[in-house]
Design brief:
1479 residues, mainly beta, five-stranded mixed beta sheet, 11 helices
Length: 1479
């Protein structure tokens, strides 16, 4: 069995070598695209081939020991074909001629660089080979015995084990023998689909090393990264796919998949055909698609989308819902369409940010917690088995409000790339708004999944919108966010990124793929592993993948020789022109083949190299990268081309621009707008767009704005483009709607007069005319249409001439505006051309509405073309609600209207009305005109009314403004609704959106109704009726403006100032800088001199004149004369007689006061105050005091010295002097003086505390006492009822009166009033029913009195009287109660043998009962105890010849009906002899 296995292995190896050589010589596709062949490359290739032949010969000889030379370093390959004799026989043309180096760079940016170890590949291959061989041999199984079967199975297992050992051995000896060309196991398959569908091409490619895959469309490389909305490329474990989204006809092409590795290239082609539903003009993305027949259900599904969502605006943090109602016809049971939502052509999947709902008839998309990432074009697509329909609208997301004015807004689109074990690249996009200053940089935060702790990744802000984050923990998941920084502070954080795992890409791919059968995960070796303990080789291909001012990122390929254990890396750097290498990562070695260096000097050049290491040691360094200068490799984008703005709708503008010419890795464009004349720029989009066309929504109608565009990439913002031409936000002009209601208004033998209704939609421009077509109708067969007029008709009526009598005709009408000619109206009914014989007038034409408001509208019309047999003498206007039937018509007026217009009032706001008009002549009233409407009675937003203005020159004009002017719009003024052509009465001046009609010479000829209509708008119009009364009022205003008077806020006034100065002043309401003032006194002009000082403050309008003093000669009239242009004003003040003399005295006093205050003086003279405690204080306030100023108090001209008793009452604090009299009495009367004296002078203040002064103090004291009184309280006693009130202090001079039922109470023995301490009381002894009622205590307070009232009636009386009776009864009982009042001692000591006689005095009414007790036992009167009661007052006890047995506790008990009492005493009997013995 062993020999057989050996032979089999040898044959397999020989066959493998032959296949290897055959592949090598058939084609050789390499990475170089050079067409020239160098001798050096040819030699290297020849040498390599020669060595391989030698190896093959040795193998074919069957030597058991195979010694293979290691592969030489490969020379640069060329596209050469070599024959068996190693001669160049020509060039091999690859399938595509694209640059494979470019392809490699492109693919490497999309794929993860996964390095697969050869041992895994060999083990997998051998396992599949063994299973395939066993599967073939199973077919040859014949009936065998069990023993034979077990033997063969054991043999096969042994053979498989031997094959694995040989494969492992060969792999160790020559790993290069495993490499082979790419091979398509599953080729992409061509497809044919309808427009709008998504196509996905799949293929499976084998090859070693793992081939790179590139996709081509018609030989043009597909860059999926540049067009993510169109293409998606995915690679996973040799399964490759290309997804083409939202296919259109241009996607029909040849698609190639090209696989490339070091051994060569292979390709496969597939054809994609996109079918259209119909030929002709290409359908737009929003156009409904035709539906096809569904054979499964036997119907054709037709889809209608209604209740569509409009362009939406939301703010960050809000929740927004978009929805449409969908009708699918016919309805099939248990069949539902598929609803798919897209954002910017990318399908949306449900997540925590996106929620979708299909209820069976309505599709809803809910965006939870809006972010700027949610901005874009949203499309709802309804797929049925007959086709699909779509609807799209844009969603704008505004930035959340910043906490501090000037802060930047949050960045957006945070994503993670190139994740490894300890390294990940975070990218983001810059926000549209930088704030009050440019963005200085960004902070990146990370948070480990499952925690809520955010850690800042960078200490210094980074300007570049791409940052490598290092220091991650392998195997943990992280999310990231970014914040922007400017001079004002830090922005809100962005939306967090998707979670990313820090691990090797190959490990992450294995985790995503899960376990794969039939791989067992176990590889066994039968010999010693020679790679254990081997120092790894050096890394290769060290390159700088990113270089900015902040950091440099290196990348390299792991070493080929590294053993079974993982390798880590050390990075070294060397400054240019230096030979010293420094280790960059001085701590732990890195695990990923990526590393970011931050501590580099900008502008300097560095070289870098890498060493690998494992437990066995550190490898040799890799080749150096060469000098790399630290700085941004990516430049800022150039400014985009000048934008072009065009009108779109009333709230949107379409902006086009040229793409930036110099830009790499464009993130998109931001569009901004600004109102003309301002420098405030507002962003149109908060998420950058890559297209060069954008529709800016949410603009204000009528605003004149300009646009600019700036590009953005990872390096930052470009300069803004030049501003666009200004554009007014209003709807673009389009072709109008078609006319309606073509009717006949008059017929004669050879002509007919037609009329029709104007289009309801004029396309944003005035209707310039109409074209009429006709055709004949014979026997029900219609002929061809012919034009009747070649020149546009100005009015909605036409006289069709040269017709044939008794022939039937049909007519149709087209309207024309500046955009073109509309579609034709519906044909009229067949009308016979024959003469009318009726006498009534025809129908009026041209009925239209102006000045539509909430409750009114003006109707205008033209007379009928056919007036009947007599002239028209009036019109009748009818109206009805649009919802009402024919019976709802009612007349708008009673009498015939002579004019061709009428204002309808009394309409209901928000209701829709329909109007018609009828003409009248002497024969009667004709038919109604075509109905006009429905007209919505609602004032259009932005509507202004005509107003009358009178300018400063007295010119009267009428002004009308319109905020929605469009291109070609004009103001048309009318009088009585006839266009004004004669300018002799009015002059029209129009500027922008304002028109002014100026009256040249207003008079009674101008009375009437003036109206103004703005053409090319949606009915902006207004009117103003000028009446005779209104004209007179306007003429008066005009006169005032022609001959103006300067208005004064107040007439001239006079103020007396410090030092006795006098100020004359006035103030005007407004004046110009040219206003002048003339100061006059008694008709003499005053100038600024020593006596008079004048001032005119034109900013405040205050005019002043100052005089130091008033003299006798200053009596008279003072006047201010003002002149301001043609305006004049005069104001005067007369000072004569007593008024002048009083003012003069007051001035002299004020001057004396000023002199007094130059030294120590009284700011406030002595006064008094009474405190709440009723203390009287004399107080004054002093000023301009120095330390040496003497302050002297005196009473009755007697100075109060420091040692006097009254000196303690004087206090000085904070400029106030106080003399505390305390509780005042008549002894405190007197005159109190205070004198201030120093070298500057003296001042004196006195207070007369006698007579009037004393009475004033007492009155104030009485006021304080009166107001301190409490409410009246009631107290019952045994004698009666007491009413009382408490005061803080009582003075004997205070008058207090009591009243009962508002009558003064006369004092008697039964009713008394008085004072006890601070208690004021009224005692009512033995109260009776007469004492009930309201009691008032009147306390004098210095003026009138303070009253305290108590109502002694009702419950209060009952309770008080009841308590009085109770207390009275209790007092009576207490007075008459039996009691011992005296006579008994406490202790009696008596000698034995003596007689004891004690008498106690008793009291009680009635006379109490008396008893005696000894030791609580009652005594009875007998021979030994003699008990007596004499006169009912004296109770006695007599004990004759006492013994020691008589000692004890005795009590005299008295008792009557009111109570009882005991008088206790102790009797002690002693024996003298015994006492002596004890002694």
């Amino acid at each position: 069995m062993s020999g057989s296995g050996s032979v089999t292995v040898t044959q397999k190896l020989q066959q493998h070598q032959q296949e290897h050589q055959q592949h090598h010589f058939e084609s050789s596709f390499h990475l170089s695209t050079k067409s020239s062949v160098s001798q050096k490359s040819y030699s290297a290739c020849k040498t390599s081939s020669s060595r391989r032949l030698q190896t093959t010969v040795k193998t074919e000889k069957g030597q058991e020991v195979v010694k293979l030379s290691p592969l030489p370093k490969r020379a640069k390959r060329t596209y050469l074909a070599i024959d068996m004799d190693k001669e160049v026989i020509g060039y091999v043309i690859p399938v595509f001629r694209a640059s494979h180096e470019a392809v490699r760079g492109l693919i490497e940016s999309h794929e993860e660089d996964v390095t697969e170890e050869g041992i895994n590949y060999v083990a997998m291959r051998n396992l599949f080979v063994r299973e395939a061989r066993e599967a073939v041999e199973v077919k040859k199984v014949e009936k065998q015995t069990r023993t034979t079967h077990i033997r063969e199975v054991a043999g096969r297992m042994e053979l498989g084990k031997t094959l694995e050992e040989w494969a492992e051995f060969r792999k160790k000896m020559n790993p290069d023998s495993l490499t082979h060309l790419p091979e398509f196991i599953i080729k992409p398959r061509g497809q044919t689909v309808w427009e709008g569908k998504t196509v996905k091409l799949h293929c499976t490619v084998a090859g070693w090393p793992k081939p790179r895959i590139a996709w081509y469309k018609n030989n043009v490389l597909i860059d999926a990264k540049a067009k993510p909305e169109k293409y998606t490329v995915e690679n996973s474990y040799n399964m490759h796919s290309l997804e083409i989204k939202n296919c259109d006809f241009l996607d029909t092409a040849q698609y190639y998949a090209s696989a490339l590795n070091v051994k060569g290239e292979a390709s496969s082609v597939a054809y994609i055909v996109i079918k259209r539903f119909q030929e002709g003009e290409e359908a737009g993305p929003l156009d409904p698609k035709p539906h096809g027949f569904c054979a499964e259900h036997g119907v054709t599904f037709r889809t209608t989308i209604i209740e569509k969502f409009e362009v939406a605006f939301g703010n960050e943090g809000e929740t927004m819902s978009l929805g449409c109602s969908v009708i699918v016809y016919p309805t099939v049971k248990k069949y539902q369409p598929e609803v798919v939502w897209y954002r910017d052509s990318v399908p949306l999947k449900p997540s925590k940010w996106v929620q979708t709902l299909w209820s069976g008839d309505r599709a809803t998309l809910t965006l939870v917690h809006l972010n700027k990432e949610d901005e874009g074009m949203y499309t709802m697509r309804v797929n049925t088995k007959s086709g699909f329909d779509t609807y799209s609208a844009y969603v704008f997301v505004r930035d959340a409000d910043v906490e501090v004015e000037g802060l930047p807004v949050a960045p957006l689109d945070v994503h993670c790339h190139d994740a490894n074990k300890d390294y990940v690249v975070v990218t983001w996009k810059q926000p549209a708004v930088e704030g009050s200053s440019s963005i200085l940089g960004y902070y990146i935060d990370r948070c480990e999944v499952g925690t809520h702790h955010w850690a800042q990744c960078n200490d210094a802000p980074v300007k570049y919108a791409r940052f490598p984050v290092t220091g991650l923990v392998e195997g943990r998941s992280y999310v990231f966010r970014v914040r922007a920084l400017n001079k004002a502070g830090v922005s809100h954080p962005s939306r967090v990124s998707e979670a990313v795992v820090a691990m090797d890409p190959s490990d992450r791919a294995r985790l995503r793929a899960g376990p794969s059968a039939p791989w067992t995960g176990i590889i066994k070796f039968t010999e010693e592993d020679t790679t254990v303990g081997v120092v790894p080789g050096e890394p290769s291909d060290v390159v700088v993948t990113e270089a900015t001012k902040s950091y440099v990122v290196l990348a390299w390929k792991p070493p080929m020789q590294r053993g079974h254990e993982g390798v880590m890396y050390y990075i070294e750097k060397c400054i240019s022109e230096s030979d010293t290498w420094q280790r960059a990562n001085t701590g732990m070695p890195v695990k990923s083949p990526r590393f970011a260096l931050f501590d580099l000097a900008e502008g300097k050049s560095y070289s870098f190299r890498v060493r690998s290491c494992n437990s066995a040691g550190v490898s040799e360094p890799s080749e150096s990268t060469g000098d790399i200068t630290v700085g941004d490799k990516l430049d800022l984008p150039s400014a985009p081309g000048s934008p072009v703005a065009t009108r779109n709708t009333n709230t949107s503008v379409v902006v086009f621009w040229s793409a930036s010419k110099e830009v790499k890795h464009l993130a998109g464009y931001y569009i901004e707008y600004s109102a003309v004349g301002t420098d405030e720029w507002t962003p149109c989009n908060n998420k950058p767009v890559k297209k060069t066309r954008f529709v800016c929504h949410g603009l204000t109608t009528g605003t004149n704005i300009v646009f600019r565009v700036k590009a953005v990439n990872a390096a930052g913002y470009s300069l803004s483009s030049a501003n666009s031409e200004a554009v007014i936000v209003q709807a673009a002009v389009s072709i109008s709607g078609n006319p309606t209601n073509v009717t006949l208004v008059e017929a004669v033998k050879d002509y007919m007069t037609l009329a029709w209704t104007e289009p309801s939609f004029n396309g944003g421009a005035d209707i310039r005319g109409y074209f009429v077509d006709y055709r004949t109708v014979k026997g029900g067969v219609v002929g061809k249409w012919h034009e009747m007029n070649h020149k546009a008709l100005p009015a909605p009526s036409y006289k069709a001439e040269n017709l044939k009598e008794n022939v039937l005709y049909q007519f149709q009408v087209r309207a024309m505006n500046m955009a073109g000619v509309s579609k034709a109206s519906l044909p009229s009914s067949a009308i016979e051309c024959k003469e009318w014989t009726i006498t009534l007038p025809g129908v009026p034409v041209g009925l239209h509405a102006l000045e539509v408001r909430d409750t009114s509208a003006v109707m205008l019309w033209e007379p009928p073309i056919f007036s009947g047999r007599t002239p028209i003498n009036g019109y009748y206007l009818d109206l009805k609600l649009a919802s009402a039937g024919e019976a709802g018509w009612k007349a708008a007026h009673e009498k015939a209207n002579k004019g061709k217009y009428m204002k309808v009032t009394g309409m209901k706001a928000g209701a829709s009305y329909v109007f018609r008009v009828r003409a009248q002549n002497l024969a009667g009233v004709g038919k109604s005109s075509a109905a006009l409407g429905p007209i919505l009675s609602q004032t259009r937003p932005g509507t202004n009314e005509i107003y009358v203005d009178v300018d400063d020159d007295g010119v009267i004009s009428m002004v009308f403004e319109c905020s929605e002017m469009k291109e070609g719009s004009e103001f048309v003024w009318s009088k009585n609704y006839k266009t004004i052509t004669d300018t002799s009465r009015l002059t029209m001046v129009t500027k922008g959106g304002k028109s002014r009609a100026i009256f040249n010479s207003p008079s009674l000829e101008d009375l009437g109704t003036f109206s103004c209509v703005v053409t090319n708008t949606e009915g902006f119009s207004s009117s103003y009726t000028l009446t005779e009364e209104g004209l007179k009022r306007l003429l008066d205003i005009s006169h005032d403006h022609k001959f103006p008077v300067i208005p004064f806020k107040n007439e001239m006034a006079m103020d007396l100032l410090e030092k006795g100065r006098v100020r004359f002043w006035t103030q005007v309401e407004k004046c110009s800088s040219a206003c002048t003032v003339e100061y006059v006194f008694n008709n003499a002009i005053i100038t600024d001199n020593k006596k008079y000082t004048v001032n005119f403050n034109k900013s405040t309008g205050i005019i002043e004149m100052f005089m130091d003093s008033l003299e006798v000669t200053d009596e008279g009239t003072f006047t201010f004369n003002l002149v301001d242009g043609k305006a004049k004003g005069t104001t005067s003040l007369v000072l004569i007689g007593d008024e002048f003399r009083a003012l003069q005295k007051k001035s002299e006093f004020e001057r004396a006061e000023w002199v007094r205050k130059q030294g120590p003086h009284f700011v406030e003279y002595i006064g008094f105050t009474v405190t709440q405690e009723c203390n009287v204080l004399l107080k004054c306030k002093i000023g301009n005091i120095k330390p040496e100023t003497q302050i002297t108090w005196s009473k009755d001209k007697i100075e109060i010295a420091e040692d006097d008793e009254d000196a303690a009452k004087i206090e000085r604090k904070d400029g106030h002097l106080t003399f505390n009299i305390g509780k005042i009495s008549k002894a405190d009367k007197g005159v109190y003086d205070v004198v201030l004296r120093d070298e500057r002078g003296k001042d004196k203040s006195s207070f007369d505390l006698t007579d009037a002064g004393y009475q004033a103090v007492m009155n104030e004291l009485f006021r304080v006492i009166a107001h301190s009184s409490s409410d009246i309280k009631i107290v019952s006693t045994e004698y009666g009822i007491i009413l009382s009130s408490s005061v803080t202090y009582y003075n004997e001079e205070l008058r207090v009166g009591w009243l009962q039922k508002d009558a003064k109470i006369s004092v008697s023995e039964r009713v008394k009033s008085g004072v006890t301490g601070e208690e004021l009381w009224l005692k009512i002894n033995e109260p009776t029913e007469k004492d009930k009622g309201k009691y008032t205590m009147d306390i004098f307070d210095g003026k009138d009195g303070v009253k305290r009232v108590f109502d002694l009636s009702g419950k209060a009386w009952e309770e008080a009287f009841e308590e009085f009776q109770r207390l009275k009864a209790a007092a009576l009982a207490e007075r008459n109660r039996a009691r011992v009042v005296g006579g008994l001692p406490d202790v009696v000591a008596i000698q034995e043998g003596k007689s004891l006689n004690l008498t106690g005095n008793v009291w009680g009414e009635p006379v109490p009962e008396v008893s005696w007790t000894k030791n609580d036992k009652e005594l009875l009167s007998n021979e030994r105890y003699q008990l007596k009661l004499e006169h009912g007052k004296f109770a006695s006890i007599t004990i004759t010849s006492v013994t020691t047995a008589d000692s004890g506790k005795y009590a005299l008990l008295v008792k009557n009906k009111y109570g009882k009492e005991a008088g206790e005493f102790t009797v002690s009997v002693y024996n003298p002899e015994e006492e002596e013995k004890k002694g």
